[in-house]
Design goal:
The complex is a heterodimer of chains A (279) and B (153).
Chain A lengths: L8 E2 L1 H6 L6 E7 L4 H4 L6 E4 L15 H10 L7 E5 L5 H12 L5 E4 L2 H7 L29 H9 L4 E3 L3 H5 L23 E2 L16 H10 L8 E4 L5 H12 L5 E3 L3 H5 L10
Parallel strand pairs in A: 1-5, 2-3, 2-4, 4-5, 6-7, 6-8, 8-9
Helix pairs in contact in A: 4-9
Chain B lengths: L12 H11 L3 H14 L8 H5 L12 E6 L5 E6 L5 H14 L4 H5 L12 H27 L4
Antiparallel strand pairs in B: 1-2
The chains are: A alpha/beta (279), B mainly alpha (153).
Chain lengths: 279, 153
């Protein structure tokens, strides 16, 4: 058994062999913004999940035009194969990939194992920030079939359709609202969306090198919790980054056709007046 | 409305100096300076490794921060950190706090306003979300200061 869409995943060797491939752009997307300036894959550019990809005013992503501007400035054409990698088992790499898919970019890939694996293999890291000739990138209309909004999540919950809560067990149980000492990032209520099953994101990756687990293990993990390929699935976490990883696993590694990421996640649901909560 | 802190309350002089230095830096210089602080954070002294093992596991998603505080020879507090090199931002913020507050009395640590870093304008370099790490590390340091004040360590 192999991954259903293996073309969405590349190994570090592949990236090392494509460092100067003009048809490939390597993008680092981290939780920690200092990692890229301290050293990155030669030729890689940086996007930041917050300062690059979020709308400067509203809680939303860049508009289509703003996204086009970002992609153009990174020298990406509509044909470029974009490879994402990052820290924290590729959370924010998956998040950036998800946004590129949202704006219709077809050729996207995750570097299996992310920064951690690249570093462990003692591959080169450089500080030079490359610049590429500006392109004229054209984004597509947002693909809302991969993004869930609160009303859709409510309907999903009412219809008892599959919801996957990928946060840690204590966040699911409501014992923790967010991380200790980070009240600003939390929610006013703890618990989970009624009907959601708990499958922490980390169960999909190998702890030692951050790579994804083999296909048969992944299938057993999700199907064992009742998350089947033929259903519509919505994944969520706290701000939508950990659930991007789960979304990537379900969508491309296991080939679930209808899976969406609820990027509002717990920081929206746990603050939403009148929203049902289960503990 | 009474405020819990006033911005007029003086910060310990070394911390004030760091805040002032950051205020005038460009975005790129702020990033460079944060990296320099991050790289300057000393490793945990060998004698504290046993304390490190007793540390409670920190829930995922948050960068694990181990902190140890002891009274220095002059009576002020000295802070030691153990934070993974994979989290340079949190290391940098902790190094700033350690440089700014080492040698301070517990009362001085407790009096540092939770928003002391606002004039540093770090959000343009690392975004507001990450700056909240300051609040987290400072809260840890205040808990340690409080224990010393109550004679628990």
């Amino acid at each position: 058994m192999s991954y259903v869409y293996p073309e969405y995943l590349v190994e570090t060797e592949w990236v090392a062999a494509h460092l100067s491939d003009p048809n490939v752009r390597i993008i680092e997307s981290d939780e920690d913004p200092l990692l890229y300036p301290m050293g990155h894959i030669p030729g890689a550019v940086q996007v930041d999940w917050f300062t690059t990809l979020q709308h400067p005013l509203r809680r939303d992503f860049l508009t289509k035009e703003q996204f086009e501007e970002v992609a153009s400035n990174l020298g990406i054409t509509n044909e470029t194969a974009v490879v994402f990698y990052g820290d924290k088992s590729n959370w924010f790499a998956c998040y950036a990939l998800w946004l590129f898919q949202y704006y219709g970019h077809k050729k996207v890939k995750i570097m299996n194992g992310g920064r951690l694996k690249w570093e462990k293999e003692s591959r080169p890291l450089v500080k030079d920030v490359p610049s590429y000739q500006k392109t004229t990138y054209r984004a597509k209309t947002p693909d809302k079939s991969i993004r869930a909004f609160r009303d859709e999540v409510l309907n999903q919950s009412k219809a008892k359709k599959p919801l996957v809560d990928v946060r840690s067990p204590k966040e699911y149980s409501g014992e923790l609202i967010s991380m200790p000492n980070y009240p600003q990032e939390g929610a006013t209520r703890g618990g989970h969306i009624p009907g959601a099953v708990s499958i922490p994101w980390a169960q999909a990756v190998n702890e030692t090198d951050s790579t994804f687990k083999p296909p048969e293990e992944l299938r057993a993990l999700y199907e064992g919790k009742g998350i089947k390929p033929d259903e519509e699935v919505i994944a969520y976490c706290r701000i939508g980054e950990r659930s991007s990883l789960t979304w990537f696993v379900l969508k491309y590694l296991l080939g679930y056709p209808k899976v969406r990421n609820y990027d509002g996640s717990w920081t929206e649901w746990g603050n939403l007046v009148d929203a049902p909560i289960e503990k | 409305m009474p405020r819990p802190y006033t911005i007029n309350m003086p910060l310990p002089p070394k911390l004030q100096e760091i805040v002032d230095d950051f205020t005038s830096l460009t975005r790129a210089e702020k990033i460079e300076t944060l990296i320099a602080y991050s790289e300057s954070l000393p490793s945990l002294p060998e004698r504290l490794k046993a304390e490190r093992a007793k540390m409670d596991p920190v829930p995922e998603c948050m960068t694990p921060v181990f902190l140890y505080a002891e009274k220095g020879p002059a009576g002020g507090l000295l802070f030691y950190f153990d934070i993974s090199p994979e989290s340079p931002t949190v290391r940098g913020l902790a190094a700033i706090l350690a440089s700014g507050l080492n040698g301070s009395q517990p009362e001085e640590v407790l009096s540092v306003p939770a928003d002391f870093f606002m004039p540093m304008n770090l959000q343009e370099a690392i975004s507001q979300q990450r700056i909240n790490g300051f609040t987290g590390v400072l809260a840890h340091m205040k808990q340690a200061a409080l224990k010393h004040l109550h004679g628990e360590s």
